[in-house]
Amino acid sequence: MMTGRSASDRRAIFIWAIAFSLAMACSGVVVARFDLGWIGSLAVMLLGTGMVVPFVLALERSARNKGDLSPAMQRYNRRMILGSLIYTLGMFAATFGYKSWHPTGVLLWILGILPSIGVLLMVWAMGRLLTEETDEYQRLKLTQSALVGTGALLVIGTLWGFLEQFRAVPHVPAWVVMPIFAITIGVARCISWLRA
């Protein structure tokens, strides 16, 4: 088993983390500002979300080089990528369907629930990882990252909620909790990996 991460592994993780973050931000701005039609918007959103793949592969390569990439973590990564793509597709379908069809009744509820399928898959993947991971130290690191993500979400949500109530900041829709949680847990895990 090797110890520590090489400088090239750290650099690759950093570069792909920045590329993924920029791709997500840019795809959000492009879809919001330009009328690309549904095919163009979907392509841009999937491109941004798809940037998670080289980022995860860089993390896995680094973990493999260090000797601590478990089969459970590899399965988790695949499940999370799938969940992220389903979330993106669900979010796109729901938003597009709502704007285009102006649904009511059952269809409105179905469109409103659709993006949650990807979120449910991601939460299930997190639970499966904690169940399948046999290394107690790895489970501890995963639990700590989840706690950081949950704590950050609670603090940000409470802070923003009061500022919004006092009309100091604009309203933010509740669905942003998943991206905030994913970002904070991802940052916590990256810091943990880079420090190892």
Which term fits the overall shape?
globular
Average pLDDT, rounded to a whole number, is: 89
The helicity comes to over 70%
Structural class: mainly alpha
End-to-end C-alpha gap: 13 Å
Number of strands: 0
Summarize, please.
The protein is mostly helical and 196 residues long. The protein is built from seven helices and no strands.
Written overview of the protein:
The protein is globular, with a radius of gyration of 18 Å. The protein contains seven helices and no strands. The two termini are 13 Å apart. With 196 residues, it is an all-alpha fold.
SSE blueprint:
Elements: H1 7-33, H2 37-50, H3 52-66, H4 71-101, H5 105-132, H6 136-165, H7 177-195
Helix pairs in contact: 1-2, 1-3, 2-4, 4-5, 6-7
What key attributes describe this structure?
84% helix; 196 residues; 7 helices; mainly alpha
